[in-house]
Design brief:
Number of strands of chain A: 13
Order of helices and strands of chain A: HHHHEEHHHEHEHEEHEHEHEEHHHEHEEH
CATH superfamily of the largest domain in chain A: Type I PLP-dependent aspartate aminotransferase-like (Major domain)
CATH architecture of the largest domain in chain A: 3-Layer(aba) Sandwich
Oligomer: homodimer
Strand order of the largest sheet of chain A: 3-10-9-8-7-4-5-6
């Protein structure tokens, strides 16, 4: 019996017994079995499948089940439908097998740079092994609210989902953001708000609006590293202003402003990344004064807003609250506290610039997805978000002081223990580039992702500092690694000095 | 009795009778009534609301209902919660009332430009009055599939939704796209595919990767207008190659290539926007030859892919199928045929460039939203999408020939009646800028949005052509307008010649 004999017979009854008791639906059973027989070449390409009716009769299932199964097989490239002639087994185009995303991080080697770190952050590693990450563990976030909101949007009038959204962003969300901003004492009408795909896109849009290649953008040093790469890609020069515990070094800010005539100064006023410290009121006022003198537009990135307990509890001065969006462009979003995946951020600015940015957004991406914006609107307007944010803060408060003590015990120094936020900026007393490479490449167990201080400086010079996420330090392997490394270092220093 | 007397009493029993029979939930009844009384200042700011327990008892509802209502009132800025002290009526920050999006289009005036047209396209006008639109009416799309997919994603493990996606895009979707491309004879592994927020973002990313200010990008003339603005915003010079019914004017293409040394040539091979014509095989080959000679990278925008019945039925040659992603970067997406709002598109290119673009995407927007990508994956893999696309094509086929006949009857000329697609490129015999302004500003009834030919040319010169969407021409007002205008024009011409 040759293969050519098997094919027609097999095609006549391509599937064995189907079970109504199985967890798998009848449709999926058919799909799986037919696909397997095609893969194993028991069903030959070019041969005709039985008609819907005949298949249904011979297997005792409804024609609808067969139609659904055949459709899925067409979608997966196993069958093709020839109009009027029925379904045929496809000559499958050579498809290279699906290559899974490697679960081990890439070796850093000499390419330890911003892109390397960010790429590794997106690897699907268990959260416990990523003290260098900038996000909270998934189970800290309010997955149920997001899932509920998605289901509820799925139940709405479907046509809402089909058209392009409004380029400026979903209006009810912008109205809700107006209220949120009002509580921060920032007055902004919905016309002054433009939604973005996270703060990252907002920064990119603003930088493109304000700078041409060769222009200077001031950032804090240290600061969020991704924007260095983003601004450099636009041809901008990125110059760092030393950040002190209460804000930038004002003398240096004034000097650099006079020297470089920067177009923009990007700053986290509240819960600065990576130190989790906030701007003092006095410095906020001086920053605005210097910006006015040198005609610098300030970009206030307030992504950690909801991790701060509020200015009634702890001091926090927002530049936009002082300046009321004249010289300050305010950015924030929900990637840190609701769900990164929604990619919902926003810009609040003057009405005229909001309009220009909405036009620019059209040119860059047409619109942002309404869906994420509807989810955020629903969660914000239903009131559970406040409590959720408060729970996150309480939980972080509990971990933060414990983590700082533990860090000091294993030999790191924390000069400024922040009163809020998820980051601690710790001094390891050795080059943290080397430490990060050893953490990633350690022989036993999976790698540990650290965020070395060099990344947070626009100069990228080696640093003894690193950023640690207090919510991602639970794995004992992290502590074992730190203890071992820092003890060895100390031993090395001792042996050298002896 | 003064107001100050009313406040405390009112706060003690802030809501009248609640109804369990009402369609509105008890929670929402409380929210609505309390909010109204605060708005009308019957409940005064600063006064304390009754405790949860007391409110629940006095109104005969469960404490959970009251908690939910108070939470919503906090979220809406009516109440504030003071830890340990209860809920208080807020001193409301002066919030400017929500300004609705104007439902009438903006006057065109002298600013008839790309941004003007696009802005008006996003106004929420009934589809029938937008023959200039580039999308199909919402009811043509498969809203049920999108809504089903959203609900089903909302039922999945919530933690999936919380983290950032993979910057290159949701892997199962990229695997599905590999199969889709294989059917078009384009070989691409998932590593060669990067998802984008629609083709618009894909074009922006590619242009940023390949050009510096002053570089030239070739486009077809006419072509999709939004990219002119997008490229100009990058400082690129946008130069048009005359597009003939079977592809570009090759002699001009070679001349312009030699003259401008362009970095990129962006082309719709299949169902070119705005003419709905496709590239012939012979021209496709010559385009690649010229591109190789002058070292031009080709960007093949195949957004209308699924509106074409397939090359077995009608000729259609894709440059990427000939070149296999060596010199050709292939872009497509699902905004036209699934739902614009999902903002899911993709780039297929060489493995090395895919990696560079994924890094660039990180710098621009970190990641695209997983949610839209999961929706598209679900719809593509379940097989109903093919039939849906076929239904759309059949429906367009029916309308297209009828529309062409009707256009000719009212005095427009259609030189090349396209065999597929949604657009007809028609010659009105008069300046269509003028026609578009008159259509938008007509005295009776709402405006009609036309897409005048000038927009589709990088030179922006006045044109007698315009793009009409055959799916958006059903409103008799459109035909009355065209008939009247073109008759007047003819009468004017006659009176001039007499």
């Amino acid at each position: 019996m040759t293969n050519t004999h098997i094919a027609p017979r097999a095609a006549a009854a391509p599937v064995g017994r189907l079970s109504r008791e199985a967890a798998e639906s009848l449709t999926d059973q058919i799909v799986r079995t037919v696909a397997a027989r095609i893969d194993e070449r028991e069903l030959r390409s070019g041969s005709r499948m039985p008609s819907i009716r005949r298949f249904a009769d011979s297997h005792g299932v409804s024609p609808f089940t067969v139609v659904a199964a055949y459709d899925k097989l067409v979608a997966r490239g196993y069958l093709e439908s020839r109009r009027g002639a029925g379904f045929f087994i496809r000559e499958r185009a050579p498809i290279v097998g699906a290559v899974p995303v490697p679960s081990v991080p890439e070796p850093a080697g000499q390419s330890l740079d911003v892109v390397w770190l960010v790429r590794n952050m997106f690897r699907q590693m268990p959260h416990q092994q990523m003290p260098g990450t900038g996000v909270l563990p998934g189970e800290w976030l309010d997955g149920d609210s997001v899932a509920n909101a998605l289901r509820s949007i799925g139940r709405q009038n479907a046509s809402l989902l089909l058209n392009y959204g409004v380029p400026q962003g979903f209006l009810p969300l912008r109205q809700q953001l107006q209220r949120k901003l009002a509580e921060l004492e920032i007055g902004a009408t919905p016309e002054q708000i433009v939604t973005t795909a996270g703060v990252t896109q907002g920064l990119d849009m603003v930088a493109r609006e304000f700078t041409r290649p060769g222009d200077t953008i001031l950032v804090d040093d240290p600061a969020w590293f991704l924007m260095f790469g983003s601004f450099a890609a636009l041809g901008a020069r990125v110059v760092g202003v030393p950040r002190l515990p209460d804000g930038p070094d004002l003398a240096r800010l004034a000097e650099l402003a006079a020297l470089h005539k920067p177009k923009l100064y990007v700053i986290n006023s509240v819960l600065h990344n990576p130190t989790s410290t906030s701007l003092s009121a006095a410095k906020a006022y001086q920053v605005l004064r210097i910006a006015a003198e040198h005609d610098i537009t300030i970009v206030e990135d307030d992504i950690y807003c909801d991790l701060h307990p509020g200015s009634a509890v702890q001091p926090a001065t927002r530049l936009a609250a002082l300046d009321q969006l004249q010289r300050v462009i305010y950015l924030s979003g929900f990637s840190k506290t609701m769900a990164a995946n929604l990619r919902v951020g926003f810009i609040a600015t003057s009405p005229e610039l909001a309009r220009r940015l909405a036009d620019r957004k059209m040119l860059q991406t047409l619109t942002t997805s309404d869906i994420g914006e509807r989810v955020v609107y629903k969660i914000l307007s239903e009131g559970a978000y406040r409590k959720h944010a408060e729970r996150m803060r309480t939980r972080l408060d509990g971990l933060r002081s414990r983590t700082v003590r533990q860090l000091e015990r294993v030999g790191l120094r924390v000069d400024v223990a922040p009163p809020a936020g998820m980051f601690v900026w710790a001094d390891a007393g050795c080059d943290t580039n080397v430490l990060a490479e050893r953490a990633m490449g350690q022989a036993h167990g999976p790698g540990i992702l650290l965020a070395p201080g060099s990344l947070f400086s626009p100069s990228q010079l080696p640093s003894t500092f690193m950023r640690l996420n207090v919510a991602a330090m639970q794995d004992p392997a992290i502590w074992r690694f730190l203890e071992k490394e820092l003890r060895e270092k100390e031993a090395g220093a001792l042996s050298k000095s002896s």
